[in-house]
């Protein structure tokens, strides 16, 4: 399966409306939804946040110029929320998955979809 197919499947779930898959280092996007682009600074903040979340706690989580309140951050997952929408970000052995959920989707539903894909990728060595 191509990387783009994974992004397309996340969006097809209807629990995620935009998604992107980056390399674990955050230096390249492997697949993404149309128009879902993060700046180099934004992805760099996310990469650093997995190992030390103090910057995200102090300054918030940013994606596409929008500031999200960071709800959780550990060495596997980062969750952010702005109003009724939010981000689910999960790091695997080789990737960083970022899913955006829109207003009207329960955060837990979007989290489950993105985390399940991460579990699958980890199980096959990614």
Class of secondary structure makeup: alpha+beta
The oligomeric state is single chain
Q: What count of helical segments does DSSP give? A: 4
* Structure summary, number of beta strands: 7
Number of domains: 1
Largest sheet: 7 strands, antiparallel
The CATH architecture term is 2-Layer Sandwich
CATH-defined topology: Beta-Lactamase
User: What is the approximate shape?
Assistant: globular
For the largest sheet, list the strands in their spatial order: 2-1-7-6-5-4-3
Walk me through this protein's architecture.
This protein has one domain: Beta-Lactamase (2-Layer Sandwich), CATH 3.30.450. The chain has a seven-stranded antiparallel sheet, sandwiched between helices. With 126 residues, the protein is of the alpha+beta class. The protein starts with a helix and ends with a helix. The model has no long low-confidence stretch (mean pLDDT 96). Strand 1 and strand 2 form a beta hairpin. 36% of the residues lie in helices and 33% in strands.
């Amino acid at each position: 399966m191509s990387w783009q197919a994974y992004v397309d499947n996340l969006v097809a779930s209807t629990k995620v409306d935009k998604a992107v898959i980056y390399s674990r280092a955050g230096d390249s996007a492997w697949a993404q939804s149309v128009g879902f682009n993060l700046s180099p600074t934004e992805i760099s903040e996310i990469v650093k946040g997995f190992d030390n979340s103090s910057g995200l706690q102090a300054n918030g989580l940013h994606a596409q110029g929008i500031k999200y309140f960071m709800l959780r951050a550990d060495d596997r997952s980062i969750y952010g929320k702005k109003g009724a929408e939010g981000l689910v970000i999960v790091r695997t052995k080789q990737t960083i998955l970022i899913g955006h959920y829109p207003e009207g989707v329960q955060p837990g539903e979007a989290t489950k979809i993105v985390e399940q894909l991460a579990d699958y990728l980890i199980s096959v060595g990614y």
